[in-house]
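User: My collaborator sent over this chain with a note saying "see what the structure looks like." That's all I know about it. Can you take a look?
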Amino acid sequence: MRTILVTGGAKRIGKSITEQLGCENNRILIHYNNSDQDAKKLQNDLIDKQIETFIYKADLSKVSDINNMLEQISKDVGTDLDTIINCASIFEDDSARNIEVENFSRHMNTNLLAPILLSKYLFKTHRKDRDNNIINIIDQRVMRLNPSYFSYSISKFGLWGVTQMTAQEYSPSIRVNAIAPGPILANHDQSDEVFETEANNTPLQKQPNIKDISNAINFLLNTESVTGQIIAIDSGQHLSWKTPDFIEN
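Assistant: Without extra context I'll predict from the sequence alone. Here is the result:
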């Protein structure tokens, strides 16, 4: 049995990860920020299935909230925490032309600094008799940069760099890997039609299955020779090459 912290674990991709890992006889720690009702309902659903579950409310853009959450985790599970899935993030559109310091800082603090601090905590508290893991949920766009969602993209590109450097720094105690989702769920500012077009324009011409994220996590957790890697769950979106200048014969 693993003790797993999933940040942003009450909704969307985080919820799917939480549910699947919980059903595999793991102890689950669910972090959330504004999704109180979703987190409590998910916790109750897991408890009904005899899955030991804790929930933690924290604004990951605030170091004080992170520290308070980690203090409570220490009280609840001691040094049993062995896996962190850094899934929580904010995703807001901006560009290099209209960047605002406050928005940029919120992206950096939530999407980049928080995973770094949580990873540091695991390194300080991990038990040597465990297979310890950090898995960062990034984005396929780090392999195919474009200027949209500027602050978000920089934060995720930075997290991919952090993944590789902490895989070096924390070896052999902790394995650190990343997963890069593609068009799995529509963005908050995307219509169903636009999202469907995006998914169908991937090389595999289909929407990736949300459960494939958890399948990839299970592969990483069960393959103890893998560290510093990234797996794209995006129907090949990061390989897209049919740009407007391409003329098909």
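A starting point for your reply to your collaborator: The chain has a mean pLDDT of 93.
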